[in-house]
Specification:
10 helices, mainly alpha
């Protein structure tokens, strides 16, 4: 099936419109609140490395993640549950909020396993050749292979972009099968999907830059006070929540289009 960008976006908007209240509940609990808590209780985690040493910039970055990595990991876990629960809400069987959250919790470990398998596979397939090239051919060969590896990694990420909807909407808990099914579903549409994701990313980045500038000026006026941290955390949480919900609806729309109607949707047609 040829992927239709316009149809996917229209369906994503329809899904968002039809489920906005329930989506807002789950997104508020699992995405907005963790971001707000992080901004209020661990403000340094939201600021990034305080200063980069020109001679050793990696030291500041490593120190930053060493100090805040646990918080980022915990927030990522909670937000992963939220993302999977949001997807579950878009299932044709129309689950309740409680059922969607239960599905998110059930799918979390298989989804995490799929991500681990993906990272290990990419590390072996791309990291080993780059290391060998650097050892045998020097810096130039390593740089060339690194650039090629970036292209291959982007291609792979597009191919496996439907793992989460395959698991949640397709009821597939086997991580290997989920990776394989996503790869199969995107067959013949990789370039179209890449263009679609890229256009969406560009739109989000431009909007985020404009809104962040306005937020930054407003927060700067308040200073590093409790009020400033609260306002900054709230606005950052709202933005993250909106982007997450939109992205989930887009993934669901892409999956629905490429996988065809579900059994539940077909049954409703003949009821």
């Amino acid at each position: 099936m040829k992927f239709d960008m316009g149809r996917a976006w229209s369906e994503a908007v329809s899904l968002l419109s039809a489920n906005k209240e329930l989506l807002a509940v789950i997104a508020g609990i699992f995405i907005f609140l963790p971001n707000l808590a992080l901004a209020l209780f661990v403000p340094e985690a939201m600021e990034g490395p305080a200063a980069l040493d020109p001679e050793d910039p990696m030291a500041a970055v490593q120190g930053f993640y060493a100090a805040n990595g646990l918080w980022f990991f915990l927030v990522a876990i909670v937000q992963s549950i939220g993302t999977l629960s949001l997807l579950a809400l878009l299932h044709d069987r129309r689950p309740t909020v409680g059922e969607a959250i239960r599905t998110g919790l059930i799918v979390l470990l298989p989804y995490f396993a799929a991500q681990v398998l993906l990272v290990i596979g990419l590390a072996i397939a791309l990291g080993v050749p780059i290391g060998v090239a650097g050892f045998l051919g020097g810096t130039t060969a390593a740089v060339v292979l690194s650039l090629l590896a970036v292209v291959v990694a982007i291609y792979v990420m597009v191919k496996v972009s439907l793992v989460s909807p395959v698991m949640v909407l397709g009821n597939t808990l086997n991580p290997v099968r989920a990776l394989r099914d996503s790869w199969q579903l995107t067959k013949g549409n990789s370039l179209r999907l890449f263009a679609f994701y890229l256009l969406l990313l560009i739109a989000i980045v431009i909007a985020a830059m404009v809104i962040t500038m306005v937020i930054g000026l407003f927060v700067a006026m308040l200073g590093e006070t409790t009020a400033g941290l609260l306002v900054g955390g709230v606005l950052n949480g709202i933005l993250t929540t909106i982007w997450s919900v939109v992205f989930v609806c887009v993934l669901a729309a892409v999956y629905r289009q490429l996988s065809g109607p579900s059994t539940e949707a077909v049954s409703e047609t003949f009821e």
